[in-house]
Each structure stands twice: as C-alpha cells, then as structure tokens.
C-alpha cells in the first residue's frame, strides 16, 4: 500500500481501493520508509477504517501522542477476544480503550483510582469480557508495574462490551439494566437462584446481551418460527407464562413488542436454566 503520511514506525496513512482514508498498523511497517513509497504489509498488520472523521482524528492523535505500549495492551485484548472467545469487535476499541488505559494509568500516578458502580453486574452478566479485562490488568502490571483493583477491570470490560455491541457507554449501562430486570422476573417467578457457573446460564446471558440491545435500540426482529413457537408454548407451559411476564414488563417499560421468535428463544433458554434440560 502507498504511504500517504507516516504516523510512526508502526503506522501510516493510506487510501483503500475506494479512495477512503485508512490507517495501516503493523510492527515496523513504516520503519525506514518515506511518504510516497509502497509499504510491505507485515504479518499481523491491521487496517483501521472508519467513516467517522472525528474518530479517525482521535486515532491519529493517539498514535502520535500516546506511547505505543498502551496500544499494544488494546491489541492483546482484541486478539484474545477474537481468537479465544470468537467475539467480533468494532475497531472503535483501538481508540476508546487505548485512551482509557492511558488515562487510568495517569490517574493512578496521581493516586486516583475510580470505583465502578457497575462492577457486580459486569462480573455476573459479562463474564467473558470481565475475564479478558483481568488479563489486560495483568499485562498492565507486567509492563508498567502498576497494580489496579478489580474496579478497573470493570471499566475495561465496559469498553469491550461497547465495541462488541457497537454502542456507547451509556447504552451499555441501560443494556445491563434490561438484562437484570429480565433475570429478576425469572428468579422471582421460579423462586430460584441461578447457577452462574452452568453452561445454560452462560448461554442465556449471552443471548440476553443482544436481546437487550435490540430492545434498547428498538430493532425489529422478524418472525420465522411461528409453528415451532405454537408447539413450544403448549409443551413448556410454565416457561411460556414466565415469558409473558417478561413481555409485559418490556412493553410497559420500554415500549417494545416482543416477536414470537423472541418469545420462543426466551422460552427455550428459561426451560434450560430452570430444568437444566438439554433441549
């Protein structure tokens, strides 16, 4: 790719085949190069492309102003999420998380550590993201000799969730709220405590994460399984009654009408976590 502007030894600006500006990153990819030359794409290179010009400017500023060690922490986080957890992560994380890590370390040096009011919800509802965040704290401690408490893992997890859902931080808070409300309906209907280590609970909260996002964003979910829905609601009567309570809550609180497909998937998950049935 042709180098339009060198940002540092590991990043340069270029244009893609459609003429859109992109930022190309890779270890030593621009080392010894000059503007106008072609750069060989090294192993593990990354192309950052975003139509948001403001976000692109922030990214350029990060590369120019923040030491690359901070970006490497973010890169490690993305690699783990994509390879070990099969997550799809929006490139916005390279901006938001790198800025956050840099700011958190600067605050730490001033003796400031922030409490995270969402920590307990994040640990319970976003287990994968929280585990990866703890790994990020280990990398920060190893590289910068700084030991954060678990509140910081919660903040890093929020940036991961944001990039995973393509939402902003405020939306993540609201999505977690919807998830907890749905779990509470099930909990009090069945008078049960969830086995948060079970695979059925893990699958359910993963489903709830994207379900809650659709509710918050008012995204319409089309019905494709009406016949199956009719069979299941007659077969799993208690689970269906619980779904109707959830449906009523969501309609009253969020003005969102659950499709039959959404009711079906909720029914299946509720049946699994309440009976541990392998359906």
Automatic annotation (TrEMBL):
Pfam family, one: CAT_RBD
Entry-linked InterPro entries: BglG_antiterminators, CAT_RNA-bd_dom, CAT_RNA-bd_dom_sf, PRD, PRD_sf
GO-annotated molecular function: RNA binding
One GO-annotated biological process of the protein: regulation of DNA-templated transcription
Domain PRD: 65-170, 171-279
Keyword flag Repeat: yes
Lineage, opening ranks: Bacteria, Bacillati, Bacillota, Clostridia, Peptostreptococcales
Protein known as: PRD domain-containing protein
UniProt keyword terms in alphabetical order: Repeat
Keyword Coiled coil: no
SUPFAM superfamilies assigned to the protein according to its UniProt record, in alphabetical order: PTS-regulatory domain, PRD, SacY-like RNA-binding domain
């Amino acid at each position: 790719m042709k180098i339009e502007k060198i940002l540092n030894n590991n990043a340069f600006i270029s244009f893609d085949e459609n003429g859109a500006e992109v930022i190309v990153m890779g270890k030593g990819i621009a080392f010894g190069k000059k503007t106008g030359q072609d750069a060989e794409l090294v192993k593990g290179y990354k192309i950052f492309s975003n139509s948001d010009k403001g976000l692109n400017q922030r990214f350029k500023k990060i590369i120019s102003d923040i030491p690359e060690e901070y970006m490497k922490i973010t890169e490690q986080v993305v690699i783990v999420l994509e390879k070990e957890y099969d997550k799809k992560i929006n490139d916005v994380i390279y901006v938001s998380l790198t800025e956050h890590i840099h700011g958190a370390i600067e605050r730490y040096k001033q003796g400031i550590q922030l409490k995270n009011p969402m920590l307990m919800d994040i640990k319970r509802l976003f287990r994968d993201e929280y585990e990866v965040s703890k790994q990020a704290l280990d990398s920060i401690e190893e590289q910068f000799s700084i030991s954060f408490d678990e509140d910081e893992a919660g903040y890093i997890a929020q940036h991961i969730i944001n990039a995973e859902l393509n939402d902003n931080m405020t939306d993540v808070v609201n999505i977690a709220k919807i998830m907890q409300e749905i779990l509470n309906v099930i909990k009090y209907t069945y008078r049960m405590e969830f086995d948060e280590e079970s695979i059925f609970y893990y699958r359910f909260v993963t489903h709830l994460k994207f379900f809650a996002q659709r509710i918050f964003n008012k995204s319409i979910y089309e019905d494709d399984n009406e016949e199956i829905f009719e069979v299941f609601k007659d077969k799993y009567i208690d689970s269906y009654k619980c779904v109707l309570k959830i449906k009523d809550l969501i309609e009253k609180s969020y003005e969102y009408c659950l499709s039959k497909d959404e009711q079906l998937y909720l029914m299946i998950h509720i049946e699994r976590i309440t009976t541990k049935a392998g359906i």
